[in-house]
Amino acid sequence: VDQIKQTAAMSCWTPYTLKNVQCRNRFVRSSTAEAMAHDGFVTDRLVAFYEELARGELGMILHSHIGVNVQGRAQVSQQPLLDNDDKISGMRRIIEACHKTGTPIVAQLAHAGPLAEGVVPLNIDTMTAEDFETTTEAFVQAARRAKEAGFDGVELHCAHFYMLSSTLSSAMNHRTDIYGGSVENRARFPCEVVRRVRAMVGPDYLVMCKINVEDFKEGGNTVADTFKILTLMQAAGLDAAELSGGNPARPINAAHPSPARPEFYHGPYAAELRRLGLRMPLVLVGGARTQAKINEVLDQGLAELVAISRPLLCEPDLILQMKADPNKVPRCAGCGRCFRAMLEDTGTRCVMVHPQKPTIAQQ
Length: 363
Prior knowledge:
Layout: E1 16-18, E2 21-23, E3 27-29, H1 44-54, E4 60-67, H2 88-99, E5 105-110, H3 129-149, E6 153-158, H4 163-168, H5 183-186, H6 188-201, E7 206-212, H7 223-236, E8 240-244, H8 267-276, E9 282-285, H9 291-299, E10 305-308, H10 310-314, H11 318-324, H12 338-341
Parallel strand pairs: 3-4, 3-10, 4-5, 5-6, 6-7, 7-8, 8-9, 9-10
Antiparallel strand pairs: 1-2
Helix pairs in contact: 1-2, 2-3, 3-6, 7-8
């Protein structure tokens, strides 16, 4: 089946098959770190958080920011890890909670690289051959554990200047050897990760990535660079891409867009990728609010799936509400203060709905 053609004259309620993953509709919960794990292990409140999401009848859930090893974690204690087999049983609890509602769940695998906390950050410019091998193998083994646990696929985090993103970025990667310089060289390491993950999980398992449409940083990657990178990664075995953007210095283009920004602010970049000839299923994240605009994005073929996250912190049952009321608009104001709550012991939450207390899932 041509996965691109599946979008013709379709709405957000039309089922979609991504690789072998059956999505009941076109809504994806995008990854946003929950900060609810403990020493890398799944907790009861993290399971409850995903149970609540799964009851909302999303088409697919992306489990947030699972660290592939201790060196690459972005949060010292609260980030879940798949660095050892002892983490598999905890992940199974989350997966079973989602699957019992008919909701597939994909594991986002991440290494923070230069943004790692609690350890000496791993910088692309100073990485040794051993560093490349160790990090690649960490992704491979985390993917193995994700599949063994029962995840429906994996998403490699290649955005926001984490490890793989900083490798891809011309603004961050200043190497002069085979891992730096040209787009092809900068993509060499991420492509090797894709190839080896694909070899580990087999040909029928979903392998996707999250990637910047642009870095929004002087000297950084443009959408033309992203087209070349995705073409190379697709040849290495990548099935699909979630389009994001930005960097920690310009978070307004990454995880903290202003309420005044237009719907689907990454949409023009998706359109340019299509114009350049990208033939790959895309998940578009950033500013999805109205069904009319969501359907327009799908009908134009800019993406096959649309992703939301912060509005689900505010209203976990948002998709059910939108299905009942085509004119429903999310309560989420796009203020981004939920990310500040990530640093608290209560974990990530909507501070407008729960200003002084944990969410229902956290209680």
